[in-house]
Write a structure and sequence with these properties.
Blueprint lengths: L18 H35 L3 H29 L1 H20 L4 H29 L3 H32 L9 H15 L13 H24 L3 H23 L13 H31 L4 H26 L4 H21 L6 H29 L5 H34 L8 H9 L1 H8 L4 H17 L1 H22 L8
Length: 512
Amino acid sequence: MARTGAIPILETDAPRAGAKAWFALAVLMLPVLLVSIDNTVLSFALPEISLALDPTGAEQLWIIDVYPLVLAGLLVTMGTLGDRFGRRRMLLIGATGFAAVSALAAFASTALLLIAARALLGFFGAMLMPSTMSLLRSIFTNRDQRRMAIAVWAAGFSAGAALGPIVGGFLLEHFWWGSVFLMSVPVLVPLLIFAPMLVPESRDPNPGRIDTPSILLSMLAMIPVVYAIKSIAVDGPTMMAALWAVGGVVMGVLFVRRQRRITDPMLDMELFRRGAFSGAILVNLLSVVALVGFLYYVSQHLQLVLGLSPMVAGLALVPGMVAMIIAGLAIVPISRRVSPHILIPVSLILSVLGYVIVAVSTQTSALVALIVAFVALGIGIGAAETVSNELILSTAPANKAGAASAVSETAYEVGAVLGTTVLGGIITAFYRSALVLPTELSPDAAAAARETLAGAYTVVHGLPQPLADQVWAAATGAFESGVMVTSFIGAGLVVLAGVVAAATLKERTPTS
């Protein structure tokens, strides 16, 4: 084992996994692909959903964010329950529920019903993601193999994001918007068949008792804080948002105090004293905020501003997704020899460059510039997240792999919410302040157009041509007004992630 104070690792000569383990990894990629595809497809389906269900601006954000909101609130709970009752068992329950609810979401007739279905998807999705990553810890005990397995896991997440726009674009061009949710059924059926045969059950051999107050406190801490952030993004600072935020913080403090006092804590708070663990969590959080915020902007820009079809818009993102996958795999041999406190900041320089490219090319709206920007962003984030995820698993005790993975996934999902609400909210605020509509537009149409760019997209479809052109020109110009500021904020978040990595990940990763 490593010396005291260094990053704890498994023995470098631990038994190497055989072919069955790699087949098990392939099966575990199915839910990872699904969750990633689901997130990307929904962003691309938003214009079609806006036309079909006519959601308000707040409902549009809820359709996107209620899933990661519920997910974030339940991930630690589900990860801990997986440690106790069996990670494979939780995976199979989650897969069954996710497939069933996806079918319900596909046929939602109102925005509220779709939001409710997305909330249920978050409940079952919380069972999927911690299980997949924590099972890697038990399947691949050799650290070199585990590095590669985690790189494949991260690549699967990126591959799903790449496949989502293409498959989703095809479905949106040939079928109704609800077809994007039905993809989960053929993806999850093979998991339900092969997981019992290939994936070994894994659990904590000495689980503590289930602490119901801790479960409730974890949810009461996460959900109000994220809701407050969403509320501020939509309505600006309000007393109600402040009360939600304060309530969530208070519950969070009570949760931490309880974990320190009880004999069998739901989440071992000592993990956060390890610089490698807490630093890697922050790197994941900030990276995902930057990535999702970028995708929130670019998915609308490609379809609504540049006028690309969903299929073509999806293809425009493929180079960046491929770059993310390649970077995640290529960084594995380098990570054996270079300390993460150097490797991650250097990788993220390219992500900063991607945001800068977007900022300086805002007025030209060039498709090539957006593609190049996403390639640069993807390389940096793909490399950084592979390294940080491996550190998270390696620094946590094997019997707490589910809880540790859940914390990592919570950072992912909170980052997804923040990326949409904070960066997306900034763009929306600039859009509303800069939008100047023709005076002949009716009050109801003007109100709808001021909600979001997608709202204006819906409005212009019912206007005569000259007026429609004026409204759309004003809307796209207003939308672009917030992109430059938002891009520099995104670049700042990536810089902050690099600083966190340089400051907290100084322990040298042992070489093999």
